[in-house]
Task: structure prediction
Amino acid sequence: MLELFLAVLASLFSMVNPLGAIPVFLGMTPHYTKQERTQTALHTSLYFTLILLTFFLAGSLILSFFGISINAMRIAGGLVILLSGYSLMSGKFAEGRAVDKKVKQEALTKDDISFSPMAMPLLSGPGSISYLISIQAEHTTWEPRLVISAVVVAMGAIVYSVLRYSPYLQKVLGVAGLNALSRIMGFLVMAIGIQNIITGIVELVKVLA
Result:
C-alpha cells in the first residue's frame, strides 16, 4: 500500500504541479495581506481536495452514466495529460489550464479566487481528474481506494503549504528555477500521458481480440 501511495502521489504531484502555480497565484494576489493570502491558500486547498475526491469517488458512476469504457477513459485522459505536459514543457502552465490573460484580469477584481480560477481549472484540471477516474476503475476494493483518497488529501496539504509560502519559495527558487522545475514536471507528465494511452490501446486490443 505504501508503494501505491507513493506512486500515485508522485504522478498526481507532477500533474497538479503546485510549484508552477506560484507565479499565477502571486500575480492574482498582489495587494493581499499575508493573512488574506493564507486564507485564500487554505480555501483553495480545501476546494481542490473536495473536487478531486468527488470525481475520484464517483469515477465508476461517471463512466457508467456516460457509457464510457475504462480503456476509452485511459486513452482520452492520456491525450489530455500529454497536452498538459506539453504546455508545461513549453512554459505555458497557466494557458494550458485555460487561465489566460482575460481570466487573470478578471481574478484581480474578484473577492475570492480560491475556487475559480485557483482550485479549478488551475490546479484540479482535466488531466488529474481523468487520471483519478481511471485508477478508481482499476482498483475495485476499498483498501486501495482509501489509500488513493489519502493521497488526494495529502496533495491538498501540499497545495496549501506551497501557496501559503509562495512568496518565500519564489524568492528561493526564482523565476528561472520555477520554470526549470515546471519543464521537468512537464516531461514526467508527458510520460504519464503516453503510458496511459499505451495501456488503453493495449487493453482495448485485448478486449476486441
